[in-house]
Specification:
The protein is of the alpha+beta class. The chain has a domain of about 90 residues: 3-Layer(aba) Sandwich (Bifunctional carbon monoxide dehydrogenase/acetyl-coa synthase(codh/acs), Chain M, domain 5). About 25% of the residues lie in helices and about 10% in strands. β1 and β2 form a beta hairpin. It is elongated and about 80 Å long. The termini are far apart. The model has no long low-confidence stretch (mean pLDDT about 75). This is CO dehydrogenase/acetyl-CoA synthase complex beta subunit C-terminal domain-containing protein.
């Protein structure tokens, strides 16, 4: 599973830093923290086991517990991992969350193109600004005329 989740080879240098992330109290704090970790390499799990919540250690799978991703969900359910009780997990595996039906509000109307030409000075021509399908929020726009440098006498 390391190849499936880690994108290939594991890098020992980053692994040391990742241990510090895992044991940090701020680890994924806005996403549920350590309670959302469902799989770890056995060596990493052994290294951080004493710093994890005691009731969670045996609920995190390793390569010895789960050999591929298709076996992970049943293993988590069997071991009563806390993530199994979340609405997101239930929805992801086709659980209880019902899908709402949406009504079409009308046909999509393509946005037009707004062209704006600013005249140049002294017949030098201008430039064109073309805005396509965009929204611009700005406090101000400053357009300055660039004065040619004067030759020293």
């Amino acid at each position: 599973m390391a190849n499936q989740t880690g994108g290939g080879k594991q890098m020992a240098g980053f692994n040391g830093i990742s241990i510090q992330y895992i044991i940090s109290p701020k680890f994924q704090i806005y996403d549920g923290g350590i309670q959302n970790v469902v799989w770890m390499c056995k060596s990493v799990k052994e290294r951080v086991a004493e710093l994890l919540p005691p009731d969670l250690v045996n609920k995190i799978a390793t390569e010895e517990d789960v050999s591929d991703l298709s076996k992970l969900v049943p293993w988590l359910q069997e071991n009563k991992h806390p993530i199994v009780e979340t609405e997101e997990f239930k929805a992801a595996i086709g659980g209880t969350e019902e899908e709402e039906e949406w009504e079409e509000e009308g046909a999509m109307v393509p946005m037009g193109t707004v062209g704006m030409t600013i005249p140049g000075v002294g017949g030098a021509g201008g430039f064109k600004i073309i805005l396509k399908n965009c929204k611009i929020h700005a406090e101000s726009i400053i357009i300055k005329k660039i004065e040619p440098k004067r030759k020293k006498k």
